[in-house]
Structures are given as structure tokens and as C-alpha cells.
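== Polypeptide entry ==
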Amino acid sequence: MSRISVRGFAVASATAVTTVGAVVGVAAGNEPASVGNTEAAAADATIADIPAGAQAQVQTASLTQQADDQSTQADTAALKSAQESARKAAAETAQSKKHAADEAKAKKAAEARDKKLAASRSSSRDLGDLVGKSSYTIAETKAIAQQMMAGDQFQCFSNIVDHESGWNYKATNAGSGAYGLVQALPGSKMSSAGSDWQTNPATQIKWGLNYMNERYDSPCGAWSFWQANSWY
């Protein structure tokens, strides 16, 4: 048998080598050495210097250490694999939830858009039924105004028109020449909203609403000014 060094075995398992060193000492008829001396002797020994039983113990200890190392490496690899799988699963779940949320948001926006469009079409049909006539009642003129502005602004607009013309779209101020529902001065200013400004209350309302929005931010802003000054 060749003389194979067992230094590697001693490094892999110091405990096993120490034990073998002790066995070697006993087999040779010597007194048991100290742990340090025994390990040093074992490190410098060869397989041929160690009894067969001790060789088997050294080899077994080395193989056991190797098996433990391989098991640890396998456990580490399995843990990493499980962590990566968990990370991927979490990412896929998050992406799925985001996709579902985006779809729900888009659906809600589409429904709101469709609802708004339907309301706009309904409003246009209602307004179409009111305009294009040869004459208008106060109720019809008010209905036109309600269709042309936000609901929370109508009352303010109505308050101004009540004071300016009493909802008479043909009202004329004999002294100043102001004309129409909102008493534009001169009345021809309203031609910017339509050539039929003299006979169509919708055109007068459109011009008056634009005027109030541009000068006072809203009909309610115009009404606040009117209350303080009796004009706007």
C-alpha cells in the first residue's frame, strides 16, 4: 500500500484525526498523548502508519464531512430556489393585481364618459326642441338657459336676468338702447354669439354666459357684483 498523507483528512475533520492519533498511540503501546501532540502526529502520519481500523475511521470521518458539506450546499441551493420562486410568484401576483386595477379604472372611466356623452346628447335633443321657433315663452327661455349652464349657476344667472329684462328676450331699454335678456349695450355685441341675437334667446344666453364667465368667473360671481352695485 502506498504511503498516502492524511493531512487532508486532519484538516477536513480535526476531531476524527485527533481520535485516530489517540488510537495509533494506544496501538503502539504508548501512553495517550495530549490532544495537541496527537493531532500533530496524525497530521504528519501516513495511511501505512495507521492501523486498518483507524484508517477506516479517518476515511469515514472524511466522507461524512463531505456528505455534510454537500447536504449544506444542497440545502442552500434549495433555499435560494424557493426564495426565487416566491419572488417570481409575488411579482406575478402584483402584476396581475395592477392589471386588474387598471382594467377596472379604464372601465369606470369609459362608463363615466358614456354617461356624460348620453347626457350631452339628451341635452342637445332637448335644446334642439326649444330653439328655432318664432317666439318663446318665459318658461321655454328658462328651460334653454338651464340646458346651457351648470345647475349650480342657473339661479344666479336667473336672478340677474330677472332684474335686467324679466326674461323678455326682446326687452329694449329706451334710454340706453340695451337689448335682450342680459341687456347687452349695445345689443349688437351679441352678434359675436350668432347673427340671430335679436330673436333667439339661446344666442343671447350664450353671449351673456360668456360675458359673466370672462368678467366675473361665473354667473354667481356676476350676481355677487350685481348685488353690491345694481349693475354688472
Q: What stands out?
A: The helical segments are 7-12, 14-27, 35-44, 52-130, 138-148, 151-164, 201-216, 219-229. Residues 53 and 83 are 45 Å apart (CA to CA). The two ends are 120 Å apart (CA to CA).
